[in-house]
Amino acid sequence: MNSTVLATIAATGFTVAFFHAAIPTHWLPFVLVARARSWTRTKTLAVAALAGLGHVGITSLLGLVIAWFGFQLDEHIGRAFPWVAAGVLWCIGGFYLWRQWRGGGVLHHHLHGGSHEPSAHCGHEKDHSHWEDEIKDTPLVSTRKGDWAAISGLLVMLTLSPCEGFLPVYLSGVQFGWKGFFVLSAILALGALAGMMLFTWLTMVGLEKVELKKIERWEAGLLGTIFTLLGVLVVVMEH
Questions:
Q1: What are residue 128's phi and psi, to 5 degrees?
Q2: Are 219 and 107 in contact, with CB atoms under 8 Å apart?
Q3: pTM of the model
Q4: Count of domains observed in the chain
Q5: What domain range includes position 118?
Q6: Per-residue exposure over 125-151, b if at least 16 CB sit within 10 Å of its own CB, e if not
Q7: Percent of the chain, pLDDT > 70?
């Protein structure tokens, strides 16, 4: 039973990590910089993977803090812990659902110049991205700067932006101890890197019209639903 529950939580975590990585901030900057600098696909994917590892690493460190705190809490309150954990997950899920209802579906911290709705001010008729215009005069694409300046910028950009949507998943795995933490960290790495590599590659080979804006717009609602269900799972697991 415990193995089945952990597998369910892991599958849920993979879904969160993968679809979070589908948001353009996780792959579009790499493609734009690669085009400006004439990088090969192999080099672009390697840089994206390196940045993805930094992204996963900082998220795992935050997850470690959550896991450690959860272990201490579990030790002191015992059988009440599942209800406390479920309550936290329900509060987080409720907040995300409220944010979706208020029209704030996009949770990720975007780069300046990210995609936005059409307006009279910008003069475009469709949703689009201004990232290409925003980065054209920066060290990321400037040929006067070496590739290391661009690579470092991309690494810092993603490393300092953890996958906040995955952090509550660590809380749901506290009752599995360190095994749960390491399993979920591996799932985070697998899901995030798989998503980043896939969407970076798809864009480079020309499949740029893959509709991902709906995922971005409904991210809060998706996470809210997932965390609410995870809270239910934690309580069911206890009984």
A1: -160, 180
A2: yes
A3: 0.75
A4: 1
A5: 2-238
A6: eeeebebbebbeeeebbeeeeeeeebb
A7: 74
